[in-house]
Amino acid sequence: MNSSTSVDIHQGRGRVGCNDLHSETVAGDHRELLETTKSLFAALLYWDSTVARPHIQSAPERELLCIFGTGDLGRSLGQRLLQTGYRVVYGSRRPHSCDPLPQGAQVMSHTEAAQLATVVIACVHREHYDFLEAAAPQLKGKVLVDVSNNSEKGLYPESNAEYLQSLLPEASVVKAFNTISAWSLQNGSSDAHRQVYLCGDSAEAKQAVRELATSLGLSVLDRGCLSAAREVEDFPLQLFPQWRLPLCLATGLTAFFFFYLLTRDVIYAYVEKDKDISFRIMVSLANKVFPIVSLIMLSLCYLPGVLAAFIQLYRGTKYRRFPDWLDRWMLCRKQLGLLALGLAFLHVLYTLLIPIRYYVRYKIAENVVSVIRENRTTVFDTTIAWRSDSYLSMGILGFALFVLLGITSLPSISNALSWREFSFVQSKLGHLTLFFCTLHTYLYGWDRFLRPSTYKWWTPPGYMLCLVVPSVVLVLKLLILLPCMDRSLGRIRQGWERRGPEGEGTKPLMA
Ligand SMILES: Cc1cc2nc3c(=O)[nH]c(=O)nc-3n(C[C@H](O)[C@H](O)[C@H](O)COP(=O)(O)OP(=O)(O)OC[C@H]3O[C@@H](n4cnc5c(N)ncnc54)[C@H](O)[C@@H]3O)c2cc1C
Ligand SMILES: NC(=O)c1ccc[n+]([C@@H]2O[C@H](COP(=O)([O-])OP(=O)(O)OC[C@H]3O[C@@H](n4cnc5c(N)ncnc54)[C@H](OP(=O)(O)O)[C@@H]3O)[C@@H](O)[C@H]2O)c1
Ligand code: HEM
């Protein structure tokens, strides 16, 4: 229905209603016409108010909600509900002496407040739930929202929501809002703070809370029955869950390589040559540890992909679950990659300051002076020039692609890419990044792999150790790219199975 038609109908209605309907002087045969017009008009009115313009129906009475507790969350939630158009009544232990409440809210005792509303939100800590038993008669048949969180996991045998339900079996308890903070409610919630998880045993009660949350501009995800409350209550206690494994790995590798290189470089020089080069810890050692760990972590992003490919080739199907460890590994590749990128950044920053280091400037000056003093001539070595230019160039190319991977992992960018584009950058260019960075390190090592003096105390330098995993990943990836392997894997990933669904014999892979 467009607006101009609706205006016409209104104008018509005004004319008929005002002038003609109650006229005492209308002739008899006009009376019939009038009756017809009247019923037509009534039908029009009904159609207009219910079908064409439901929004101009008389506004329903604003729903009254009850909040138990006038603390941080109670106040913030009450304020947002009032702004959204709800009426709010607080139930408090001290209705006459609580601090100023959001304008427009009423406050009374718990039992009085519960009596007035059908939805009651308990903004009280679990430790105080026993007071609710006194309000059990008023809460009977009502929707009772549990918003509570605990300070740590596994504090109680059952979830707070299930405990509340056991105290008040005749109320319909719904777990909700526990992932929303009072602060974000007050300050206008950003995306990260908008997700409300719902769970409860009554579908109607959940629907009422869903509508409430949606009207506050929050997005709602139904997690099922009340037994899911324990999981929902654990959400706010999680601290960067997907970052834990990558962070532990980065810390462990950094600690290992730091002590390994400290022993090889600093302690070795002190013990064998009686030289104190401990100052090297701050820049030289750091500029070895960070790129080494970065390269290993980068290769660990791509190792699960090749392992998964070999598992699929071996099983002849993609429909069997990967082992749990591989699943978990695959899920934290983004975090592994971003940490690797952070460490590569540090390497580049440390590299940039090499020319301004006191030690480097001193060494260059000393070398120049000794060349002049001894009247020596130095020959330009093209091989060294090739080597250093090549490894620097590979490092720069690798780093540029590394940054590209980081940029495409930003949600705003990845959302603008199709799955194919994202997969092209992350998978294809990702392997190219690994290739450049590995080559950078091989070229940096150059012929030192063969020199016995490189192996102090029979230990290889850090960059040789860190080349093991990337080299394995690249070799395995090359194997997968062989036409026969690639074709077989392609078919498996398109749904082909070596054994039919009912296990009816083995099909040839290369058919
Ligand atoms: C800086 C940086 C940022 C990163 N950001 C992200 C990120 O935001 N998100 C992310 O996931 N990773 C990220 N990573 C990790 C890594 O780049 C990706 O996980 C990358 O996709 C891994 O590629 P892959 O080829 O090893 O494995 P995958 O891309 O998982 O796949 C291997 C092959 O299997 C195919 N395949 C995968 N799943 C299926 C399937 N179900 N059915 C059929 N075929 C399938 C793919 O097409 C591909 O050919 C990042 C890494 C770095 C260094
Ligand atoms: N704050 C947040 O950002 C947030 C976020 C998500 C979930 N939560 C959860 O929301 C609940 C309330 O948190 P909050 O931060 O608002 O806590 P709070 O500021 O400490 O307020 C709790 C309120 O509970 C009432 N209360 C205290 N002792 C009581 C008792 N013995 N008996 C009855 N009522 C009592 C008080 O209100 P009266 O004085 O009016 O009675 C008090 O103001 C908690 O379960 C918390 O886990 C909080
Ligand atoms: C702008 C890009 C880069 C530049 C200019 C650069 C430069 C350098 C330089 C100068 C060295 C020698 C450091 C020294 O002598 O102590 C070096 C070493 C190394 N680089 Fe890079 N690099 C870059 C990017 C990368 C990237 C992206 C990686 C991989 C993550 C990487 C991995 C390494 C490794 C493993 C070493 C050997 C460390 C050692 O044991 O000495 N580099 N790089």
From TrEMBL:
It is a multi-pass membrane protein. It catalyses: 2 Cu(+) + NADP(+) + H(+) = 2 Cu(2+) + NADPH; 2 Fe(2+) + NADP(+) + H(+) = 2 Fe(3+) + NADPH. Residues 66-150 form the Pyrroline-5-carboxylate reductase catalytic N-terminal domain. GO terms for biological process: copper ion import; iron ion transport. Gene3D superfamilies: NAD(P)-binding Rossmann-like Domain (3.40.50.720). It holds the Pfam family F420_oxidored. One of its GO terms (cellular component) is endosome membrane. Its main location: membrane. Its cofactor is heme b; FAD. The chain crosses the membrane at residues 247-270, 290-315, 336-360, 396-417, 429-446, 462-484. It comes from the Eukaryota. It is found in: Endosome membrane. Residues 292-425 form the Ferric oxidoreductase domain. GO terms for molecular function: cupric reductase (NADH) activity; ferric-chelate reductase (NADPH) activity; metal ion binding. Belongs to the STEAP family. PANTHER family: DUDULIN-RELATED, METALLOREDUCTASE STEAP4. This is Metalloreductase STEAP4. The gene is STEAP4_0.
